[in-house]
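Q: I'm writing a short explainer about DNA-binding NarL/FixJ family response regulator for a general audience and would like to include a description of its predicted shape. Could you first generate the structure from this sequence?
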Amino acid sequence: MTTAVLVDDHPVFRKGLAVLLEELDVTVVAEAPDGEAGVEAALRHRPDVVLMDIQMPGTDGITATRRILEAWADARVLMLTMVADDEAVFAAIQAGALGYLLKGAGSAEIGRALAAVAAGEAVYGPHVARRLRAFFNAGAGVAAKPFPELSDGERQVLRLVAAGLGNQVIAQQLHLSEKTVRNRVSSIFAKLDVASRAEAIVKARQGGLT
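A: Of course. Here's the predicted structure. Afterward I'll give you a sentence or two in plain language.
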């Protein structure tokens, strides 16, 4: 029987998904309400598949996926999310996710994706697959933007942080409030899994942002 860990911040959705998985002969060994708890649950239980949302409080699903794969190279993660934009899809792939489905997927589609990911195969829902084909047909590159898990605004702030600027100066340059800059810096720290500006600067330079 396939085992799974569910990582999603909506308890009602998790409950419904757990019922669906039981019908598919998938045993849910743990549930987590955010990325941090998801990393802990995945590494503790070592399930066949980790079903991961992207947008969650604290540690997001892409960062959590990266951390799981860094600690457990054989982990198999299936993203199950409402987020369908190109940056999120490519960030999930770069983080190591084997599958990407939207939450509107039917039970049969979820079952097929689970089986494929559990077997080590890559699988994407029809909507995501169309976006991937369109992207590659256009001749674009996956690594066009460094740190794809960051929003454009967060990337702007990180570039200025890496240049050694303080929050007040960054706010003036970007015509933002200092509070907005502080919030973006906090979000950057969480997504890049760093604890200080110095660590953020090192990551920015290693990632070619400066």
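A: For your explainer, you could say: The beta strands are 2-7, 26-32, 49-52, 77-81, 99-102, 123-124.
Q: Perfect, that's easy to follow.
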